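Example for tutorial group B:
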C-alpha cells in the first residue's frame, strides 16, 4: 500500500508539472507578439522631439527662439556665410533689382553670419510671425518707426558696429558686416531678451510620405524678379541627394563662404504678392497678408498651390487645406504679381 501511495503521488506531480508548462507556454507567445507591436511603434516615432521649422527629429529638446538675419544678396556679397544652416530663407526684393534674404535659424547655429544688411517692414513682419529675434544692420524709415514702437526684439549693426558686428577686411562696405552666433548671444544678454519663445511648428509630412509626392516633373526652375535679371536664381533637383541646389544669375552656385558647402534645399515655395513703390528712395510695400497664387517644388515635382498668411507665417494651401513641407530646409521666393508667376517662373525637366 505504501508503494502504491508513493507511485500515485509521483503521477500527480508529473501531471501537475505538464499542466503548468502548458499554462506558461501560451502567455509567452502572447508576450512576444506584444513586443513586436511595440517595436513597430518605436520605428514610427523614432524621436521624442521635432524641430518646428525643419520638421527634423531630435533626441534632445528642440525648444528655443529662432533668429532671423537680414542677409545681403548683392553680387559683391556672394558667397554668403551661414546660409547652409538656415531652416528657412525668404528671398524678396529690396530696392531696385536686388533681392535680400531673411535667413531664419533655429535647429542649427551657424558660427559666422553675413554679410548683414538693413531691414524692411515686410521682412520684419515675417520675423515677427516666427517670434524671432531680428538681426540687421540699419533699416528703412518705416522699419525704424516700427522698431522705435517696440514691434520686435532686434540687434542693430548701426548701434553695435565694431562690437557685436565686425567688418570683414576682404569686402567693402556695405557688403562686409558680419556677426557671430556667440556675439548674438552676447547681445541677447546685454539687451536682456528672452530666448524661450519657440516658434509654432509648420506642417511636415513623414519621410515615407515624401517618397510618394506626385505632381508635374520639374527638374529645375528659374525665377526672375526683374527685367535686369541681376537677381535671377535657378534651383536644380539632384535625384541622388533628393535635394535642390541653388544657382545665382550667371550660373554661380550658392555655397557657404567658409566651408564651401553647397546650399541644399528640400522645399522651394514660390509665391506671388503685390509690390508697390512707396517713396522716392524706391522702398517697396509688399502685401504678405492677402494670399495668392504659388508653386511648391518638392522631390523634383511641382504643384500649383495657393498661399495664405497664417498668424504671420506664409504657408501653402490647396483645396482649403495646408500642404505639408518635406522635412528639411525651405526656400521661399516672393515675386511681384506684375509680371506675375507666368512670366517670372519657368520650369524645365531635368534629363
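The residue assignment follows.
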Amino acid at each position: 500500500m505504501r508503494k502504491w501511495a508513493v507511485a500515485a503521488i509521483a503521477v500527480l506531480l508529473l501531471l501537475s508539472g505538464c499542466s503548468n508548462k502548458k499554462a506558461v507556454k501560451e502567455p509567452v507567445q502572447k508576450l512576444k507578439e506584444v513586443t513586436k507591436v511595440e517595436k513597430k511603434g518605436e520605428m514610427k516615432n523614432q524621436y521624442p522631439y521635432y524641430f518646428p521649422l525643419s520638421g527634423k527629429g531630435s533626441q534632445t529638446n528642440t525648444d528655443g527662439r529662432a533668429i532671423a538675419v537680414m542677409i545681403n544678396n548683392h553680387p559683391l556679397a556672394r558667397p554668403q556665410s551661414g546660409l547652409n544652416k538656415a531652416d528657412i530663407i525668404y528671398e524678396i526684393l529690396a530696392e531696385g533689382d536686388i533681392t535680400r534674404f531673411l535667413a531664419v535659424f533655429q535647429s542649427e547655429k551657424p558660427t559666422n553670419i553675413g554679410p548683414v544688411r538693413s531691414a524692411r517692414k515686410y521682412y520684419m513682419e515675417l520675423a515677427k510671425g516666427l517670434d524671432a529675434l531680428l538681426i540687421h544692420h540699419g533699416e528703412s524709415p518705416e522699419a525704424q518707426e516700427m522698431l522705435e514702437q517696440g514691434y520686435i526684439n532686434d540687434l542693430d549693426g548701426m548701434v553695435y558696429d565694431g562690437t557685436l558686428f565686425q567688418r570683414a577686411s576682404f569686402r567693402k562696405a556695405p557688403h562686409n558686416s558680419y556677426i557671430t552666433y556667440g556675439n548674438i548671444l552676447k547681445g541677447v544678454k546685454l539687451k536682456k531678451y528672452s530666448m524661450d519663445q519657440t516658434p509654432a511648428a509648420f506642417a511636415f509630412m513623414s519621410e515615407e510620405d515624401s517618397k510618394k509626392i506626385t505632381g508635374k516633373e520639374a527638374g529645375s526652375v528659374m525665377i526672375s524678379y526683374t527685367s535686369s535679371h541681376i537677381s535671377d536664381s535657378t534651383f536644380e533637383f539632384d535625384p541622388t541627394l533628393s535635394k535642390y541646389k541653388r544657382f545665382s544669375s550667371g550660373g554661380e552656385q550658392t555655397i557657404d563662404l567658409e566651408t564651401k558647402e553647397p546650399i541644399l534645399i528640400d522645399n522651394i515655395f514660390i509665391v506671388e504678392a503685390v509690390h508697390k513703390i512707396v517713396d522716392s528712395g524706391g522702398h517697396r510695400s509688399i502685401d504678405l497678408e492677402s494670399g495668392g497664387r504659388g508653386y511648391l517644388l518638392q522631390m523634383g515635382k511641382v504643384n500649383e498651390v495657393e498661399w495664405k498668411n497664417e498668424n504671420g507665417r506664409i504657408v501653402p494651401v490647396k483645396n482649403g487645406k495646408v500642404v505639408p513641407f518635406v522635412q528639411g530646409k525651405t526656400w521661399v521666393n516672393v515675386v511681384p504679381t506684375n509680371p506675375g508667376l507666368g512670366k517670372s517662373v519657368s520650369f524645365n525637366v531635368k534629363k
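The mean pLDDT is 89. Compare this with the pattern of hydrophobic and polar residues in the output above.
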